[in-house]
Amino acid sequence: MATIYEVSKLAGVSLATVSRVMNNNANVSDATREKVTRAMTELGYRPNSIAQSLASNCSNSVGLLVSELHGPFYGPMMSGIETAFRKQGKHVIIAAGHSNEEREQQAIEFLISRNCDALILHVEAISDDYLIELSKGKTPFVLINRYIAELSSRCIILDNVKGGYLAAKYVLEQGHTDIAYISGPLWKKDAQDRLTGHKQALAEYNLSFNEQLLYQGDFMEDGGAAGFQYLHNNGPQFTALICANDEMATGAMATARECKLKLPEQLSIMGYDNVFFTRHVYPPLSTINYPINEMGRMAADWVLSNVYQKNTPPLQTLFEPELIIRQSVLTHPQ
Amino acid sequence: MATIYEVSKLAGVSLATVSRVMNNNANVSDATREKVTRAMTELGYRPNSIAQSLASNCSNSVGLLVSELHGPFYGPMMSGIETAFRKQGKHVIIAAGHSNEEREQQAIEFLISRNCDALILHVEAISDDYLIELSKGKTPFVLINRYIAELSSRCIILDNVKGGYLAAKYVLEQGHTDIAYISGPLWKKDAQDRLTGHKQALAEYNLSFNEQLLYQGDFMEDGGAAGFQYLHNNGPQFTALICANDEMATGAMATARECKLKLPEQLSIMGYDNVFFTRHVYPPLSTINYPINEMGRMAADWVLSNVYQKNTPPLQTLFEPELIIRQSVLTHPQ
DNA sequence: TTGTACGCGTTATCAG
DNA sequence: CTGATAACGCGTACAA
């Protein structure tokens, strides 16, 4: 592999000059620039990015931590991020945290030890304190789907109370009044917010929230299944079920069907996230759109702007949810 | 950030010795090892992985190229790969090729320019010739889901003709004789193989393959939809439809339902891949399992073994498909 | 067992 | 506009 040194010899210039033309930096006369580029192509020269990193103290890599590499939610997010970075010649190193505090911490340390210039984190288990502490370190990071007041400018989030509100309002508009709710783990901010929005809508309709119709799930399929089972057996009657995310809605649908309920005739179901497979379940699931792809891209833009000083479109940290109507919610016969 | 130099000073030893204890390499007396480690923790020393890479000519990074970062198929694959590598302190750089020849090439060049020690490629559009040429370069790579005779030992593949055979056989066993088939793009080896297996099963049942019941799809949802539409309007009658992958099966199901067919009563449908959402469609889709997660892990083991000389479990390049029975195929009434 | 000295391929700081 | 030359932080023959 040719080095900058050989190029300089062949072009009859110094190392510094070659470096200059590579980086389009200082003023170089067209003549010498020409000589150098010719030498480069002749030798098939390729810069050694590692040497560049060492010398410039910039690895051009950003670490991306998600809970799972599979899972319908993270794919579009990674996709938006990778696309944005590759256009700029940065590369992304991925790691999975598995929603587990220790593993999330390990992943972060791993990414930092890899000399990432910045981190994009979608973490769930790690504490606010840890992140606040981390923010004092030298590796900058953005948070997706997590709000910490002290770090607010680096938090890219969805307006979850609005989302919860939209879901409930839509169901209410269809005439339902007995509405069950399977929430996420309520120690999570997003789960709380969605529930808050839900209650707001109820209040607008002068309906009081019935604690008997609440089940705290885990954002996973099994939680939805268990939730439906529990509510079906122990709770009061309900004609609609709102789940705090699509996976739980899916689990609930499967279990409801096992209980011989006809969907959506005997039970309207509403999800949240608009994960791609919601179109394919039966009946197609009405849900709330979570623009995770755009949010990923925005996280990338944040890094591009704040770490690499690139020009980017204006940054935005709060995103809006949107109602997606399909066929899983029926008008309630009066 | 402390460097090896400061550690050596504090420990009262030379740079080389510090380096030695870091790499557990040469013989170092317990006493000095002790001194050094103490100095390291006291300074909170962290090795600079970039400097290590430059000096050792090993970046400890492997490039992973998939078609899409989203999409149900690649998630489990990336997951298996990332897990295997992180255990060994290697990191994975991801890139998306978008099933497009030019972009796949760009991605490969990008990864190579990033000094990856090895590449794991799931490519679709790139030519065999390009890959054979690439194999002469200095960056080793493995191929997933692609067979090239000249590169056979680095091809990790599924026995697709067997998979095609299993799918057809199962449907035949249920008494169907009029079976439509939506294939993948037939210039792709895996699409061909699946169809070959399909025909084999038919032959075993003394049934001749009816070209009228074949539609060439694109492995995507729309292809399945178009395929069903076409076969439904133009083809002979059929009581079962086998699709060469789950996405097309999903598209076909949606369209069949739009055509007022009751599923699975009026049409049995079979998929291929066992992508995770097949459990959630309605009716739950019978399909062929593609152990992509394991295959990803195997690709990682290949790299660990061949590039990093780590001990790994025995390598395996050919994987077996498996029949997954759910509820989308009904016994055909005689 | 330990230390010296050089090399890895660039960038960056000065002079000129 | 261009050229020396010193970092960058570490691995590794080679010598001691």
Automatic annotation (TrEMBL), chains A, B:
GO terms for molecular function: DNA binding. Keywords: DNA-binding, Transcription, Transcription regulation. InterPro entries: HTH_LacI (IPR000843), LacI/GalR-like_sensor (IPR046335), Lambda_DNA-bd_dom_sf (IPR010982), Peripla_BP_I (IPR028082). Residues 2-56 form the HTH lacI-type domain. It holds the Pfam family Peripla_BP_3. This is LacI family DNA-binding transcriptional regulator.
